[in-house]
UniProtKB/TrEMBL annotation:
Binds 2 magnesium ions per subunit. GO terms for molecular function: damaged DNA binding; DNA-directed DNA polymerase activity; magnesium ion binding. It is found in: Cytoplasm. Residues 45-225 form the UmuC domain. This is DNA polymerase IV. PROSITE patterns: UMUC.
Length: 430
C-alpha cells in the first residue's frame, strides 16, 4: 500500500487563497502566481526590493511610458541610474555610461532623476512595512530587510501571506511593484528577492540552503567583489560549493576575517539581526562633467559646491563625520578614492572642502577627470563636532560665517548667498 506525500503549504499570491494541493493555477481565481514550500509557514526573515524603482515611479506618473524603454540618468557624459525591464532586454544596465546605453537602446526615453519624488515614494513604502513589524532595516531608498518573527498572532496569518498581502497593497496604493525574498536569514532572503524579478516571490528554506548555494558563483556572497573574486579564482575557487568543502581554519589562514565569512555564508549561516535603527554609514555628493576636466582651479570650484551639499545633508540629518573621502573618476572610468580622518568630527563645508582640496592636490596634473565626489564617513553624534580652533582663529571665524550663511539659506533659499568659489560657476554638468 503506497503512502501519498502531503503537499507543501501554499497559497495564491493574487487572491491569497490557501492551496491544499500543488497545482498550476489557483482553483479560486485561476491565477498562475502560486507559491509552495515545505517551510513556507515557518520562515520570517524577508528582503523586499522595489522593481526598477526610479523607472517604475516615472511610468506610474506618465502612463504613456508604460510600453517604452525608460532610462533614468542624464547628460551625454552621465551614467544610467536605473532602467526599466524593457530597456534591460536591450542590454541596458545600471552604472552603464549613457552613450553606451543609447547605443544599445536608441529608442529609449531618458529622464533625469527626481530624487525628492523617489524619496517620498520610498518613505510611503517603508511606512507600509513598518505597519507590519517594527523590525524594518532599510538598505537604500527602495529596499529593506524585515523580521516578522512573532507577528503571526497579531496578523492572524504566517509571515509569507502577510508579505504577499503587502506586495498587493503596494501595487494597488503606490502604483509600483516589489519582489519579495523569504528565508531564515538575511543573506538568503537577499538572494531570494533577486530570483524571480519583477513581481517576484521566492523562498529559500534551511533544509535546501547547502544544495541551493553549491552551484552559485562566489560573487553571490556578500562582500565578494570583482577584486576578491579574482583572487579566489586565482586560487581555483569559483563556486560556493568549493568553499563548502574547505575548513574554516584553512580559509582564515588564506583570507583572514574574510575567510570566516566565506566559511559561514557558504553554509547558509548568517546570524546578523534585522537592525531597524541602523544609520547611514556615509553622506556624499558628486558631479559628472560633460567634458573631462584637468584644470585644478575648476575642480576646486566644483569641490566647494559639492562640499556645501554634503554639509547641508549632514546638518539636516543631525550627524557629523570623522573621515573625509575624495572620489575621482578618469575619462577611461578608472576610479580613485582618497580619505583622511579628522581629529574631531565635522558638519562644516569649510573643513570638508579644505580637507578635500588637500587630497585633490596630490591627484591633479596630467590626468583629466569625468567625475569628482566628496563625502564623509564614520558618522557620529554632532555634539562633539567642530570645537573652536584655539590655534587657527581664521578657522573659527569661517565656522561662524558658515553658520550665518546657513541661516540666510534656510530663510531665503540655497542661492541667497554664495562663496567666491561657487559664484557664477555654471559649467554644464549632470
Amino acid at each position: 500500500m503506497s503512502t501519498s506525500i502531503p503537499s507543501p503549504p501554499g497559497f495564491c499570491r493574487d487572491c491569497l487563497t490557501p492551496q491544499s494541493e500543488e497545482r498550476k493555477r489557483c482553483g479560486r481565481c485561476g491565477s498562475p502566481r502560486l507559491v509552495y514550500h515545505a517551510e513556507l509557514d515557518r520562515l520570517a526573515i524577508a528582503h523586499i526590493d522595489c522593481d526598477a524603482f526610479y523607472a517604475s515611479v516615472e511610468k506610474r506618473d506618465d502612463p504613456t511610458l508604460a510600453d517604452k524603454p525608460v532610462i533614468i540618468g542624464g547628460g551625454k557624459r552621465g551614467v544610467v541610474s536605473t532602467c526599466c525591464y524593457i530597456a534591460r532586454i536591450h542590454g541596458v544596465r545600471s552604472a552603464m555610461p549613457m552613450f553606451k546605453a543609447l547605443e544599445a537602446c536608441p529608442e529609449a526615453v531618458v529622464i533625469k532623476p527626481d530624487m525628492d519624488k523617489y524619496a517620498r515614494v520610498g518613505r510611503q513604502v517603508r511606512t507600509m512595512m513598518q505597519e507590519l513589524t517594527p523590525l524594518v532595516q532599510p538598505l537604500s531608498i527602495d529596499e529593506a530587510f524585515l523580521d516578522l518573527s512573532g507577528t503571526e498572532l497579531l496578523h492572524h496569518e504566517p509571515p509569507a501571506r502577510v508579505l504577499a498581502r503587502l506586495a498587493r497593497r503596494i501595487e494597488a496604493e503606490v502604483g509600483i511593484t516589489v519582489s519579495v525574498g523569504l528565508s531564515y536569514c538575511k543573506f538568503l532572503a537577499k538572494i531570494a528577492s533577486d530570483l524571480r524579478k519583477p513581481r517576484g516571490f521566492a523562498v529559500i528554506g534551511e533544509t535546501e540552503a547547502l544544495s541551493f548555494l553549491a552551484p552559485r558563483s562566489v560573487t553571490s556572497i556578500w562582500g565578494v567583489g570583482k577584486a576578491f573574486a579574482a583572487q579566489l579564482e586565482a586560487d581555483g575557487i569559483r563556486t560556493i560549493g568549493q568553499l563548502q568543502t574547505m575548513e574554516e581554519g584553512d580559509l582564515m589562514r588564506r583570507y583572514g576575517t574574510l575567510g570566516q565569512r566565506l566559511y559561514r555564508l557558504s553554509r547558509g549561516k548568517d546570524d546578523r539581526r534585522v537592525e531597524p535603527d541602523e544609520e547611514a554609514r556615509s553622506i556624499s555628493a558628486e558631479t559628472t562633467f560633460d567634458d573631462d576636466v584637468s584644470n585644478h582651479d575648476e575642480l576646486v570650484r566644483v569641490l566647494r559646491r559639492i562640499s556645501e551639499k554634503v554639509a547641508a545633508r549632514l546638518k539636516k540629518s543631525g550627524v557629523a563625520g570623522h573621515t573625509v573621502v575624495l572620489k575621482l573618476k578618469t575619462g577611461d572610468f578608472r576610479q580613485r578614492t582618497r580619505n583622511r580622518r579628522l581629529e574631531d568630527p565635522t558638519q562644516l563645508a569649510d573643513r570638508i572642502f579644505r580637507t578635500g582640496v588637500t587630497l585633490l592636490e596630490k591627484e591633479t596634473g596630467a590626468d583629466a577627470f569625468r567625475l569628482i565626489g566628496i563625502g564623509v564617513s564614520d558618522l557620529t553624534d554632532p555634539a562633539r563636532a567642530d570645537p573652536p580652533d584655539l590655534v587657527d582663529e581664521q578657522a573659527t571665524r569661517r565656522a561662524r560665517a558658515e553658520g550665518a550663511m546657513d541661516l540666510l539659506r534656510n530663510k531665503f533659499g540655497n542661492k541667497a548667498i554664495e562663496t567666491g568659489y561657487t559664484f557664477g560657476n555654471t559649467r554644464p554638468r549632470r
